[in-house]
């Protein structure tokens, strides 16, 4: 389904004032490992992350608000088994990922309304990523000197030092997907258009960066190098795709109020909300899609384990990789429900459900 004209004012007006009813989303992951934080949080992870944010905010003061979000905790939930050096490097990656996105997001960064400048920024980002991951001969002096890029370069130095070329190339490919899909999203927002659900989902898989986060699991969990039976498996790619789908779906629902505050409705709810459909019906459909994606993840995980069962090393790596990807999902959900970034933690009920007046 192609994109269709989107009247932001009409969609915002239709949604504002309605009550968004969300069931306990954690029930879809009841059989997965419990959420836990990395033992290097809060210290030394939080001081390292906060220092990086302050450095960035010195040039872009609006981004200082990200200190309230506690991105160190998000990192700790994503990668609970990372050792101290990897955890601190991954904290810098989280800073880069979130603040880079905010720089071109609606009403957040100074590039939000300027597509051409944002395109130049995206091209520079890909050069930085290539150099950071040890995939090009660019000298640091030829790259952007801003503090956001510096966070990516510092993370990349640690990642590249202990990751094989295929893992570094895979990480770059996922950064490129993220950057490319963010460009699509900005173009849609500036043109006032929204894609149909299928096209939206493909774009969202890139912008939510779930596959990128999964690509860093081997580095975080000490799987260096990752056994080829896992690293090259179509089953691994399949479960990573489900991670991105799950993240995109529940984040879109839980961040809807935040997005409406910026009059930006490029969101799964808007993609599914058609004439005669109620908000409750849309949420029910999204929850069904989350449940389907969780089942598809588990099926791909079983396929991966079966494919690796004759090799003890590969089987152990597969289990660690699968649980690492599960932590990205459950950690993100826990963070979204409790972080000031989304402002819904005070609305969380004892049964895990939410009622949010938009």
UniProtKB/TrEMBL annotation:
Protein name: Terpene synthase
Keyword annotations: Lyase, Magnesium, Metal-binding
EC number: 4.2.3.-
EC supergroup of this enzyme: lyase
GO terms of biological process kind: isoprenoid biosynthetic process
UniProt-listed PANTHER family: BETA-PINACENE SYNTHASE-RELATED, TERPENE SYNTHASE
Keyword Magnesium belongs to the record: yes
